Amino acid sequence: MIKEKKLAFYNLRNYENLPQIQSLTKEQKFNLQVISTVLPFRTNNYVVEELIDWSNIPNDPMFQLTFPQEGMLSEEHFNKIATAIKNDYPKEKIREIADSIRMELNPHPAGQMSANVAFLDGEVVPGLQHKYRETVLIFPSSGQTCHAYCTFCFRWAQFVGRSDLKFATDESRRFLNYLKRHKEVTDVLITGGDPMVMTAEKLAIYIEPLLAPEFNHIRNIRIGTKSLSYWPYRYVTDKDADDILRLFEKVVNSGKHLAIMAHFNHRVELSTKVLQRAVSRIRSTGAQIRTQSPLINHINNNADVWSEMWREQVNLGMIPYYFFVERDTGAKEYFAVPLWRALEVYRDAYAQVSGLMRTVRGPSMSALPGKVAIDGIAEINGEKVFVLNFIQARNPDWVKRPFFAKFDKNATWLNELEPAFGEKFFYEDELEEMLNAATRRLQKTLIESEMIA
Predict the structure, then answer these.
(1) CA torsion sign, 346 to 349 to 354 to 360?
(2) Domains of the chain: total
(3) In this predicted model, what pLDDT tens digit does every residue of 189-210 receive, in sequence order?
(4) Pairing relation of β-strands 361-366 and 370-380?
(5) Helix H or strand E encompassing 276
(6) Is residue 326 part of a domain?
(7) Over the stretch 350-391, which tens digit does the pLDDT of each residue have?
(8) Is pLDDT above 70 for 61?
(9) Residues with Cβ within 8 Å of residue 174, at least 6 apart in sequence
């Protein structure tokens, strides 16, 4: 029997109330304060009490995953904030310094603010991203937070209190009209933040309309969430846990496929009884759980961690889906792993498991042109190269067309690679045309809306 647990949050204002925090030194506490002035910090009592090994601080992977660490900011950025705090600068001045640093951390990578914008009748549709032909992302306005924040998160900019860096739907529900018009869309991904912070009633507002006949072209509904890792009680003892499961059943019974896109970064997250019960309850609705994570230095940069994680996920009835490369945003320098190392970890973990676990794809970079997989390292005509291909792309015709980049032992992202055997990658000219067209359209729309206003 799983006992009910009341959710309690901890952040910069109250984290020192935790008894476990007394093991941190004064310097560690100050470093945490400095880092979390720039990057978002939030954890909860489940993570603190059931996932973190407090005898292994600061090296414990779950501590690294949820508590800001020294090294997450450059020395220059760290010193700017540290000086401001030590000298008691006004809050407004500290916020101004923090904002200027945030803008240097690539807050919205891969063209999210410009190239992925959805338009309807000449207006931007708030809270939507449409990068790939078949898939639209929805960012519910009520799902703009999480049960805890991952220190590596590529959507960290959603949580720092700046409205200009947020994606969120408005109250007009124009996203439904957009989906109604775009019959090429087969998949909807409800994301955030984390949509599972919403009540069952609010989540239903986004899901139930998609079950109507005018949305028959929407075959798959996905929910991107970290809740299974950070608050599995959401599906077991929360007051509307049963309502959530009934909503999932309703989707499945409608004939649509429901996929819970669960984020697991370490095997520890799979170890608790409440997590295992949550997974069982979700699967009983007919929903499928697919798992994904980036390779993250200090947390899971180890093939054995991945192979054990995939085995346990399959044992619990989940499907390993994506092995990502850490994105080029936020605290990337702290968490990034060279591409050759990402391939090595993926290959070594892949070699340790049976075919049931080999559903996982990667190492995959969710880059500006699309999801680029590193297929291998080869020597061609005497030149050492990365062998790459698109798993997904802005132009579907690019998918599964192998291309090659010069081997670079220091490269951690696509834009750090140079083409092999030529001046450009095959897609570059077309991508430039796409981005220019997207920018022109966005500028025209913004100018016209200002004129109307």
Answers:
(1) negative
(2) 1
(3) 999 889 999 999 999 999 999 9
(4) antiparallel
(5) helix 273-284
(6) no
(7) 999 999 999 999 999 999 999 999 999 999 989 999 999 999
(8) yes
(9) 120, 123, 125, 126
What are the DSSP calls for 168-203, one per residue?
---TT-HHHHHHHH-TT--EEEE-SS-GGGS-HHHH
User: Is 0.90 surpassed by the pTM of this model?
Assistant: yes
Is 249 within a domain?
A: no
Tell me if residue 432 falls in helix, strand or coil: helix
Let me know: does 418 contact 406? Beta carbons within 8 Å.
Answer: yes
User: Is 319 part of a structural domain of the chain?
Assistant: no
Does any domain span residue 37? yes
Among 228, 237, 239, CA closest to 317: 228
DSSP 423: S
Q: How far is CA 335 from CA 25, 152, 197, 437, in A?
A: 23, 7, 26, 34
Provide the domain limits for residue 94: 9-102
Please choose, from the candidates 205, 154, 202, 198, the residue with its C-alpha nearest in 3D space to the C-alpha of residue 176. 205
Q: 228: which 2 tokens?
A: 């299974």
DSSP string, 282-319: HHHTT-EEEEEEEE-TTTT-SHHHHHHHHHHHHHTT-E
Q: What is the mean pLDDT of residues 123-134?
A: 92
Q: In this structure, what token pair is assigned to residue 346?
A: 């993926």
Which amino acid, residue 209? P
